[in-house]
Write a structure and sequence with these properties.
The chain has 596 residues and is of the alpha+beta class. It has 2 domains: 32-121 and 188-591, Growth Hormone, Chain: A (Up-down Bundle), CATH 1.20.1250; 122-186, no CATH class. The chain is built from 18 helices and 15 strands. The chain has a 7-stranded antiparallel sheet with strand order 8-7-6-5-4-3-9, with no helix packed on it. The chain has a two-stranded antiparallel ribbon with strand order 1-2. It is globular. The protein starts with 23 loop residues before the first strand and ends in a 5-residue tail after the last helix.
C-alpha cells in the first residue's frame, strides 16, 4: 500500500496504546489472531440468527412480507444505530475492552431468548370482514393452502391481477375475490411474540457495545502510518465471514431438523464463545482498549442504564409492528409522518450527525483535520447506498430463494432458503486473500485505487449482481417460475467482491481519518450509516412484498415478476451512484490529505 512519507502522513493517532510485542501472526501483531477469533464467533451468532429471522417471522409467526421486512429492517437498523452511543461510552468511560465483554453477554442472552417461540401461529383469511380458517397441506413436497368454509376446503389460487380464486375439489372456481378484499394473517401468541421482540431488543443493545469497539481495538494494534493497517482489517474482515460461513449453513440446518429453537440455540453458543475468548484472554490484550484515565469508575451505572434500555427497545419494536401503512397518495410528507418512532429517530439522528460532526470538526480541529472528517462523512453517504442494496440478502433475496429459486444443487441435495446466504461468506473467504494481494500488488506499482474509487467499484459490483438475477429471471427460468440456484450464487459472488471493496476499507478509513479523541464515536458513525441503510433496505424489501397465505405464495409468476422489477430498479440505482462517486473521487481524495 502506498502512503506518503512518515513526516507528511496525516493518519489519525489512536487513543489507545499501539504496540507489537515482536511476535507476529502472518506479519501482523499477534493480538490480531485473538481479535479475529472473537469477531468470528460473534459473527457466527449474529449471521446464524439473521439467516433464520425473516423465514422465522413469515413461516412461524405468519407475519406478512411487509411486516416481516419492516421488523427485519428495523432490527438491523437499530443494531447498527446503537454503536454510535456504544463507541462514545467506550471512548469516554468504559474503554473498548469492557464494552465488548458487556455487549457479548447481552447478545448471548438475546439469542437464548429467541429459542422460546411457542407453537406456530394459526393461519386465517379475512374476506370482506368475515374470518375463515386456513389449512396448509403438503403433498409431494408442494404446499397448497385451503380456505375452510363450512367444512368445505377451497384451494386458494392467486391471479396475476392480484385477485384470489377459491377452487373447489372438482377444479372449478367457486368464488373470485377482488384485489384488496382478501387479507391473510395468523393468530399469534402475544406472550411469545413479546419474547421474540425482547430477544431482538437485548441483541440490539448488546451489539451497540460490542460492534464499534472490537474494530477500534484492531485499529489500535497499528502505529501511526503503519502500512499493514488495511491488510490487517481485511484479515479481520475475513474472520467475520469465516464465522458467518459456518453459522449460515448450520443454524438453518438445525432449524430444519429440530425446530427454530435449535438454530437460535447454536447462535447463542457462538456468542458465548466470543465472550469467553475476550474475558479469558490470558493478558494477551493488556494495554489495548483500556478505560480512559479520568474520574471515578462509572461502569456499573452505565451497565444498569443499558439494561433499562432493553425494554425501551422493546417498545420501539412494538411500535414498529403496530404502525399502519402509509395512506395512498400521501407523498413524501405522508411517508415521513407515517414512519414508526424508530424511523423518525433514526433519520433525525443521521441527518443531525452528518451536519453537526463537520461543524464541530471545523471549530475544534485544524483545517486539515476538518477536511479529513468531511471526506469521511461523504464516504458514509455512499456507504448507505451500498449497504441498502447489499442487505437485501437477509430479506428480499432470502424470500426470493424460498419462492422463486430451485434449491437443488446438481440434483445431489437441496439447500434451504436460509442456507443460501452462505454463498456470501464462502465467496468472501475465497476472495479476501486475492483482493488483499491485488491491493498490495497494485500498491507496489503505484496503481492502487484510492478509497473513493474502491467504493465506486463496490457500487458497480452490487448493481451487476442484481442484473444477474434479472437476466436469469427473463431468460433462464423454469416452468415453475424458479431460477437455478447457480444464478443466486453468482449474485453473491458479485456482491461479495463488492463488499471487499468497501467494508474492510471503510473500517480502516475511519480509524485513519477520524480525529483521535473521537475515533470510537466515528466508528459508531460508520455503523450509523449502515443503520440507515438497513432501515431503507427494509423499506425496499417491503416494495418487493408478495401476498402470502399461511406463509406461502399463491402465484409464483406474480412473485417472480415482482422481485425482478425491484431488482432491476435498485441495480440501476447502484450503477448510477457508482458513476457519481467516480466523478467526485478526485475532490474527496484531496480532502483526505494523502490517507490511502
Amino acid at each position: 500500500m502506498v502512503l506518503p512519507d512518515a513526516d507528511a502522513t496525516t493518519e489519525a493517532l489512536s487513543g489507545h496504546v499501539s504496540r507489537s510485542d515482536g511476535d507476529t501472526w502472518f506479519g501482523h501483531p499477534r493480538q490480531l489472531a485473538r481479535l479475529f477469533t472473537i469477531e468470528a464467533w460473534e459473527r457466527f451468532g449474529y449471521y446464524g440468527m439473521r439467516a433464520l429471522l425473516v423465514l422465522y417471522l413469515t413461516n412461524h409467526f405468519l407475519f406478512s412480507d411487509r411486516a416481516a421486512s419492516g421488523i427485519y429492517g428495523g432490527y438491523t437498523a437499530l443494531v447498527y444505530l446503537t454503536p454510535l452511543i456504544g463507541g462514545w461510552l467506550a471512548d469516554n468511560y468504559l474503554g473498548s475492552k469492557r464494552s465488548v465483554k458487556f455487549g457479548a453477554v447481552l447478545m448471548a442472552a438475546g439469542y437464548f431468548t429467541l429459542c422460546f417461540g411457542g407453537q406456530p401461529a394459526a393461519p386465517f383469511a379475512v374476506i370482506d370482514g368475515q374470518r375463515y380458517a386456513v389449512q396448509v397441506d403438503q403433498t409431494a413436497g408442494k404446499k397448497q393452502q385451503y380456505l375452510v368454509d363450512q367444512g368445505q376446503k377451497l384451494a386458494i389460487r392467486g391471479r396475476e391481477d392480484g385477485a384470489v380464486e377459491l377452487v373447489g375439489a372438482d377444479g372449478q372456481v367457486a368464488r373470485t375475490v377482488a384485489k384488496g378484499h382478501f387479507t391473510a394473517d395468523g393468530a399469534r401468541s402475544p406472550l411469545f411474540t413479546a419474547l421474540m421482540l425482547l430477544g431482538l431488543s437485548a441483541i440490539t443493545i448488546g451489539n451497540g457495545f460490542f460492534k464499534p469497539n472490537i474494530s477500534t481495538i484492531v485499529g489500535a494494534l497499528y502505529a501511526q502510518g503503519d502500512r499493514r493497517r488495511d491488510a490487517g482489517f481485511t484479515i479481520f474482515y475475513m474472520g467475520i465471514n469465516l464465522g458467518s460461513l459456518f453459522s449460515q449453513f448450520l443454524c438453518p440446518l438445525l432449524a430444519t431438523l429440530y425446530g427454530w429453537w435449535a438454530g437460535f440455540l447454536l447462535a447463542a453458543v457462538g456468542m458465548s464463545a466470543s465472550w469467553a475468548l475476550m474475558q479469558f484472554d490470558g493478558g494477551r490484550l493488556a494495554g489495548y482498549g483500556e478505560p480512559p484515565a479520568r474520574g471515578r469508575d462509572r461502569s456499573l451505572l452505565i451497565y444498569a442504564l443499558a439494561l433499562l434500555c432493553v425494554p425501551f427497545a422493546w417498545l420501539l419494536y412494538s411500535n414498529l409492528v403496530n404502525t399502519p401503512e402509509q395512506a395512498p397518495g400521501s407523498g413524501l410528507l405522508g411517508y415521513v409522518l407515517a414512519l414508526p418512532i424508530m424511523g423518525k429517530v433514526l433519520f433525525f439522528t443521521f441527518l443531525v450527525s452528518m451536519v453537526a460532526i463537520p461543524i464541530w470538526s471545523w471549530r475544534s480541529g485544524t483545517r486539515q483535520e476538518a477536511q479529513m472528517m468531511l471526506a469521511a462523512i461523504l464516504m458514509l453517504v455512499f456507504n448507505v447506498f451500498f449497504m441498502t442494496l447489499f442487505e437485501q440478502a437477509g430479506s428480499s433475496l432470502t424470500l426470493f430463494a424460498d419462492r422463486n429459486t430451485n434449491l437443488s444443487v446438481f440434483g445431489l441435495f437441496s439447500m434451504s432458503a436460509g442456507q443460501t446466504q452462505v454463498f456470501n461468506p464462502l465467496s468472501i473467504v475465497v476472495l479476501a486473500p486475492l483482493v488483499s494481494a491485488l491491493w498490495a500488488g497494485l500498491a507496489k506499482r503505484g496503481l492502487e485505487p484510492s478509497i473513493p474509487v474502491k467504493f465506486a467499484f463496490a457500487l458497480f459490483g452490487a448493481g451487476l449482481g442484481f442484473f444477474v438475477l434479472v437476466f436469469a429471471g427473463h431468460y433462464s427460468v423454469g416452468a415453475d417460475f424458479r431460477v437455478s440456484i447457480g444464478w443466486l450464487a453468482l449474485l453473491y459472488v458479485f456482491h461479495s467482491a463488492a463488499e471487499l471493496c468497501i467494508q474492510p476499507v471503510g473500517l480502516s478509513m475511519i480509524t485513519k481519518l477520524a480525529m483521535a479523541r473521537i475515533v470510537g464515536m466515528m466508528m459508531g458513525m460508520w455503523f450509523l450509516s449502515i443503520s440507515v441503510a438497513q432501515y431503507v433496505a427494509g423499506a425496499v424489501a417491503q416494495i418487493a412484498s408478495v401476498e402470502t397465505v399461511g406463509g406461502e405464495i399463491t402465484n409464483p409468476k406474480l412473485s417472480l415478476d415482482t422481485y425482478l422489477s425491484v431488482f432491476q430498479t435498485i441495480g440501476l440505482i447502484a450503477i448510477a451512484a457508482g458513476a457519481v462517486l467516480l466523478l467526485l473521487a478526485p475532490v474527496i481524495k484531496r480532502l483526505m490529505h494523502g490517507v490511502r
